[in-house]
Amino acid sequence: xxxxxxxxxxxxxxxxxxxxxxxxxxxxxxxxxxxxxxxxxxxxxxxxxxxxxxxxxxxxxxxxxxxxxxxxxxxxxxxxxxxxxxxxxxxxxxxxxxxxxxxxxxxxxxxxxxxxxxxxxxxxxxxxxxxxxxxxxxxxxxxxxxxxxxxxxxxxxxxxxxxxxxxxxxxxxxxxxxxxxxxxxxxxxxxxxxxxxxxxxxxxxxxxxxxxxxxxxxxxxxxxxxxxxxxxxxxxxxxxxxxxxx
Length: 246
Fold this sequence. Notes:
Blueprint: E1 7-8, E2 11-12, H1 15-29, H2 33-41, H3 44-56, E3 63-67, H4 73-80, E4 84-89, H5 92-101, E5 107-110, E6 123-129, H6 138-148, E7 149-160, H7 168-187, H8 190-202, H9 206-215, E8 219-226, E9 231-237, H10 241-245
Parallel strand pairs: 3-4, 3-6, 4-5, 6-7
Antiparallel strand pairs: 1-2, 7-9, 8-9
């Protein structure tokens, strides 16, 4: 269990309440979500996502799930590499915004990360970008990701993480005072962005997240910090059957 389970911001809630509240957040922020990401990160989230996609190294033979794929920005980059990509997200509003903003068609599937509608061992790679902290249960989602990946399949997660010193105090002040005001000014939803910031603050750090991934059975788990740890790419593989037997 992670420090985010059974919480919503600083509130203690049931799993069902957490899911309902998070779904409401994304209904509220969907119309200006991508614009707000540009404002909050000064556009650097686009650089992080390009680095992330390079790590995925999608092949034309790959079947990929982009979980919590929202408006589809990651999925479209993966499709340019020739892979077959499905966006899976619990928020219909986010996926509909993606359809409005791009003429590139995507296969969108409404589902949660804890209950993926795919057969065991059927997916080559699964990506998730700034979405795993919004799962109802991170551990349950990781278990489900492991289940649907083929032996040798790969998991890639881009998420906010623990910022290194000496940048950490300045970053914390920015999150606490600036982003909720940006949320009010640009998106008209300060409360929703307050939750998003609190979820970043409570998210497991790099080593804790690595341990959670390993607990779900993944091997070759490692991570790469981006911009002093503001963001982090986590990677792991489902053990090949032969490796597992050894």
